[in-house]
Design brief:
With 148 residues, the protein is an alpha+beta fold. It has a single domain (2-122), classed as 2-Layer Sandwich (Alpha-Beta Plaits). It has 4 helices and 6 strands, in the order βαβββαββαα. The chain has a 6-stranded antiparallel β-sheet with strand order 2-3-4-1-5-6. A hairpin with a 2-residue loop joins strand 5 and strand 6 (97-99). The protein is globular.
Length: 148
């Protein structure tokens, strides 16, 4: 399963309210998990606070996607949670870019992040080809040594 880290940033009180609603839990703790629509699983990461007069904070959520992922459905659910929480000044940071709570923007950002994750994984064919190449060069080196 691929995991994408999304950082929600805003004032500490607004952020706490949003994340409590997001996880539908009475207690927030690192590692808390929640199944979400669209084939996603949320995992709460450690909270980070920025020193400022506004008490800015960031909460990271790891989002793991299964095989039948639908980023659009997940993004709609996420934005609906934000709306029900009062449309507070919170932004979502995906792949080091800040996004407003709009379904299309968040869905596209998540889709792009998933593509990047898939590109980073070596395919089984590529791994097999590399191991065959390594074995072939070992055989050739062994033969050269034996012939000398």
């Amino acid at each position: 399963m691929a995991e994408i880290i999304v950082a929600f940033e805003g004032q500490k009180r607004d952020l706490n309210d949003f994340v409590f609603d997001l996880f539908e839990a009475g207690l927030l703790r690192e590692g808390l998990e929640k199944e979400a629509p669209g084939g996603a699983t949320l995992v709460l990461k450690p909270m980070q606070m920025k020193k400022s007069a506004l008490m800015q904070a960031a909460m990271e959520v790891g989002i793991s996607f299964g095989s039948g992922v639908a980023a659009t459905i997940f993004a709609e659910w996420l934005v609906e949670k934000w709306r029900k929480n009062g449309k507070k000044h919170i932004s979502a940071k995906i792949e080091n870019r800040l996004y407003q709570f709009e379904e299309k923007l968040i869905a596209k950002a998540l889709d792009d992040a998933m593509v990047k994750l898939d590109l980073k994984k070596p395919s089984a064919k590529a791994a097999t080809a590399v191991s065959e190449t390594d074995q072939s060069s070992r055989d050739q080196k062994g033969r050269k040594t034996a012939q000398s």
